[in-house]
Structure formats: C-alpha cells, structure tokens
Amino acid sequence: MVRILVIHGPNLNLLGTREPEVYGSTTLSEIDAMLSELAGELGVEVESFQSNHEGAIIDAIHDARGRFDGILLNPGAYTHYSLAIRDAVAAVGLPVVEVHLSNIYQREPFRHRSVIAPVAAGTIAGFGAESYRLGLRALAHLLQGDRAQRRN
C-alpha cells in the first residue's frame, strides 16, 4: 500500500483559532481526520506529524526515506526561507506536494516566493483545508501511477 507522510509546519497546531479570517476555522485534528478518511477512499495510508521546529521537520523528512512513498508538506512560514528544508526534500528523493491553506500569492510580498516549490512535484494553495485534500489526491495519483508503471 502507498504510504504518505503528512508534515504540518509551524503554528499549524493553532489552526481553528489562529487568524481564522486567513486560515479558516478548521482545526489541525479535523484536517488530519479528513485526510485519514480520504486516504481510505484512495487506497493509501497516511501518517501525520506537526512541529514548530525546523530541525524536527528536517528529521521527519529524512526519516521518511524507506518508510513512506511520498510527503504532503505544509512548511508554513518556512516555505519562504528554509533552504535546509528545501535541501532535505531534494536529498530524500521522495515526491513531495507542497500545500498552503491561504493563497500565498495574494498575501504580503515576502510570502510570494517558495524555496520548496522548485524541488516539489507540485504546489496547491489558497483553498483552505481543501488544499490538503487536493494535495493528497494529487500525490496519491502520482504515486499510484508510478507503481503501475513499475509493474508494467
């Protein structure tokens, strides 16, 4: 079975109460439950991890190699400047889909640049909690397609 690691970056543990006009009112546990339900429908397995610490996120990315087939990543503010997370994504060689609740291109100019996007399979932003569901669908499709091609 395809296994996907979901990584939630800094401040996402505060979802539901943190700036709901920007990030919505859905909590992180509700997002994780949504993803688990969708994973069942898609025939994939998900495991979620959240950290406010850059090094812990990097360790989770490293530890995913050999345990997971892909990563669904919301790097939060690290999106815009963490070359260390970008390098970890590039180093492990797993497909990564980057997701954001808000449309980073409609926000402050410093948020318009993602250092993760160039090493990700794709980026989905601006659809609130639905961004995660869209990202999971995209990653599952990509990974299941890769498996089918390897079998042929």
TrEMBL record:
GO terms for biological process: amino acid biosynthetic process; aromatic amino acid family biosynthetic process; chorismate biosynthetic process; quinate catabolic process. Catalyzes a trans-dehydration via an enolate intermediate. The keyword Lyase applies. NCBIfam families: aroQ (TIGR01088), PRK05395.1-2 (NF003805), PRK05395.1-3 (NF003806), PRK05395.1-4 (NF003807). The active site is at Y23, H100. This is 3-dehydroquinate dehydratase. Keywords: Amino-acid biosynthesis, Aromatic amino acid biosynthesis, Lyase. Substrate binds at N74, H80, D87, L101, S102, R111. Homododecamer. It catalyses: 3-dehydroquinate = 3-dehydroshikimate + H2O. The record marks R18 as: Transition state stabilizer. Pfam families: DHquinase_II. PROSITE patterns: DEHYDROQUINASE_II. Belongs to the type-II 3-dehydroquinase family. The gene is aroQ. Pathway: Metabolic intermediate biosynthesis; chorismate biosynthesis; chorismate from D-erythrose 4-phosphate and phosphoenolpyruvate: step 3/7. Its EC number is 4.2.1.10. It is an enzyme of class 4 (lyase). GO terms for molecular function: 3-dehydroquinate dehydratase activity.
